[in-house]
Specification:
Helix content of chain A: 40-55%
CATH architecture of chain A: 3-Layer(aba) Sandwich
Radius of gyration of chain B: 18 Å
CATH superfamily of chain B: START domain
Number of helices of chain A: 13
Shape of chain A: globular
CATH class of chain B: Alpha Beta
Oligomer: heterodimer
Distance between the termini of chain B: 23 Å
CATH architecture of chain B: 2-Layer Sandwich
Distance between the termini of chain A: 23 Å
Strand content of chain A: 5-15%
Number of strands of chain B: 7
Structural class of chain B: alpha+beta
Largest sheet of chain A: 7 strands, mixed
Strand order of the largest sheet of chain A: 1-10-6-2-5-3-4
Largest sheet of chain B: 7 strands, antiparallel
Strand content of chain B: 35-45%
Structural class of chain A: alpha/beta
Helix content of chain B: 25-40%
Largest interface: A-B, 25 and 25 residues
Chain lengths: 311, 181
Amino acid sequence: MGATATHNGHSENPVGDGRLRSEDEPRAPSLPGRLARALAGQVTRRIPPADLDERDPDYIRESLPRLWLLSSLYFRGEVRGLGNIPEHGPVLLVGNHSGGNLTPDTTVFTLAFSAYFGVERPFYQLAHNLVLSWPGLGFLRKFGTVAASPGNAEKALRSGAAVLVYPGGDHEVHRPTWESDRVDFAGRRGFIRLALEHDVPIVPIVAIGGQETALFLSRGESLSRLLGLDRLLRLKVLPISIAAPWGINVGDFLGHLPLPAKITIEALPAIRLRDEFGPDPAVDEAYDYVVRVMQETLDALAEERRLPILG
Amino acid sequence: MRVQAQIEIAAPRGAVWELVTDPERYLHFMAGMTRWEVAGDRATGLGARYRTLMRVGSAEIGGLVEVVEWDEERDLAWSSVTGVDQRGRWRLRAGSAGPDSTRVELRLAYGVAGSGILGWVAEVVAAPTVRGHLRRSLQQLKRQVEHEQLRRQAAARRSGAGVSATSASRSSGSPRRTNGN
């Protein structure tokens, strides 16, 4: 329902499968490769084209009540500082991301944004390819979720929309629970270039609580590399967590039942990179600045939190 | 879902009307309201539009509303243009103490058409919060109107004492405080 993005891979594991066969049949070493390519091709085909037109304001409006129930009762969401988001025009919302494949921060924020500015304001969220190709998640496209690609981001910003990006992506959502209060974008600086190129303000969206919806243990990066998922599916992680109702949960392919952790989100004052760093800002410097500002806010939010889950 | 609240205010209807038609002052007495902003050229009167937001649960909810009914010192109703569906009404009538008192009713009907059974559940879940906002709004409205009424009467007494008997007699009606509701 409301809990949204899936950042993860396909449950069938072509490479492991293939390795067995390649032992039986050493003359066809390309079989696992072929299978994997076929799967990757399948995934790519399923990715909808860069289509901003899929967003459906009526659908969003009709979904607001159930999002509100989920967000208010289950996650006891609290969203501050929406007034910091410029009322009009394109803006790049940059969030830290938590909660494994089911990210409650997106749910709470999407509701808050759509209720505050109205569903008429164009608002797109960039998501991992696999989120959009995953069966059953088609409804996300009606919410304005588009595949994370420079092309899509560019189109959306040029159309004057608000665009929400989570630079940390799959790397960040699967960080261990004890790193809950760390902003971890893995050095991905694309969003800075995007903001500079289109000369749009960045509004940092800092969220806490999502990493308490399960006990996240490891990203399983080496496992993912071992299985070749990183190259095939742009999937750099194969996370391991303890989550309801599965117990030990490897991959989080089917999602899980998130614990009702309190989600607090704060939108910070807009950062206009050229005002801050002159006409030609250095990407690294700007990146460090945005991450630092977000980390300071996350520290404050973590300080405020007294108990895990309860908030 | 339709919620309402009412209160009796010890002031003539005109004094209450003055407040509930002034968009500048909505945030001073409307509980839970985080925005009541004029949108467009008209600040008040039939056809005036406002951007409204009310904090309910985890979100600020509202939208653009338009004044659709304007019956001087009696009725002011608005209806949503965008955002959640809503219809609100101020209904001012003579109170139990005659023309010097006013019975104020504040009604709000809200929902999202087409949101199905969960939409209905959400409306029911939100109702106590919304009703609480309306009640507190009326209490704050009462406090403000009566406070202003007292100040006006006191000012009239002060200036009236030295000037004329007519204004003095008008203000001599003891500043009564009703603790209705």
